[in-house]
Amino acid sequence: MGQIIHLEYNHVSNFDLNTLLAYTDIWCEKIIDENRKKESLLARLLIDKICAVTSNKTLNDCGFQKDSKGKPFLKYCPEIHISITHCEGHVWVAAADCPLGIDFEEVNFNAKEDLKIAFKKEDWEQINTDTVSVFKYFSLKESYTKMLGMGFLMEPAEIAIKDVYKNSYHKIFNICDRCFIFTIMTKEYLPENLLSLLETIDPKYV
Questions:
Q1: For position 205, what pLDDT does the model report?
Q2: 37, 161, 171, 176 — which has fewest CB within 10 A?
């Protein structure tokens, strides 16, 4: 894909469940909570759109799978690396030609102290006076573990702030008086079209 990222976003409120059920699979069928199910189904729809753009194939043609640690991949298009994140009905999917991880988190100004356990003592002392920074680095840690294919099987406190600087980016979105943060990390480079692409996305409730 030539150092280009493909990024898709939508909100579950734009879809009814019956429409999304066309994208169900063995993982989605196990989800009991309807909102979480809709987020996961919407993620499949967005991956399907990316498959069409990047390889002129469908999601089924590309062979969407998850490995033993929960990392999503395309069995028949291994050159395409994907990452998924969803929060409060917002669903994002990214694809690139190198490993990557994305995350989307709400910045909860009343829950900053809850994240103290996710940081080394010296890192916490550096950032704890700024709630947005706390959530930014927590989100970057999640993007980092997704990039590695570990998820939070790796303890977030084991990841130092210095580990998540390289090839990373964050953007703040203010949505209906709530603050959200999007983060991305890639293994080799920040795709050249990332910033312009993010400028075209306007997450909102509808």
A1: 66
A2: 176
